[in-house]
Amino acid sequence: MPLILLNKPFDVICQFSPHPVRKTLADYVDVPAIYPAGRLDADSEGLVLLTDDGQLQHAIADPRKKQPKTYLVQVEGQASRAQLERLAQGIHLGDFTTAPCHASRAQEPAWLWPRNPPVRQRANQPTDWLVIRLNEGKNRQVRRMTAAVGLPTLRLVRVAIGGLSLETHPLMPGEWAEVPATGFKLGGR
User: Fold this and answer.
1) What range defines the domain where residue 47 resides?
2) Of 3, 20, 57, 86, whose Cβ has the fewest other Cβ atoms within 10 Å?
């Protein structure tokens, strides 16, 4: 039962089946019968876990299993204490309210790779980096959260799932590595 860490590049679809115009995971990982344990949008990048084991996939991706997911988020504007508190407390997004999470300002880490293509910068608009750690992972949730507090997301990088991170397993975009599947509870809730 392989567990593969992949650093998914920007603009790659998080699926193995062919896509008419974009690259998919199959363009980077040639291991038969594996599937992503959770997804990242094409315009997000970073850590994706892949496995051939359905129980392990469920243990990683199911929000009831409480596997924290950590994101580095470059936002347009400077985050205020009030905006960070709103993010951390949970935000009503119309169709659901997010669970409380961790949200803090951060420095861009030295180990973070440049995005290709680069993020569009406006000379008169500052940007900030945030760390957001949550147990959920609904469609476009982090982007919707930052937009709701007035900080549109410019770049979104998932850097960790549970105890596995790109900081301790340095991989450049498109690179992958097989690791032991420890730290994920299988079976029951």
Assistant:
1) 1-67+165-184
2) 20
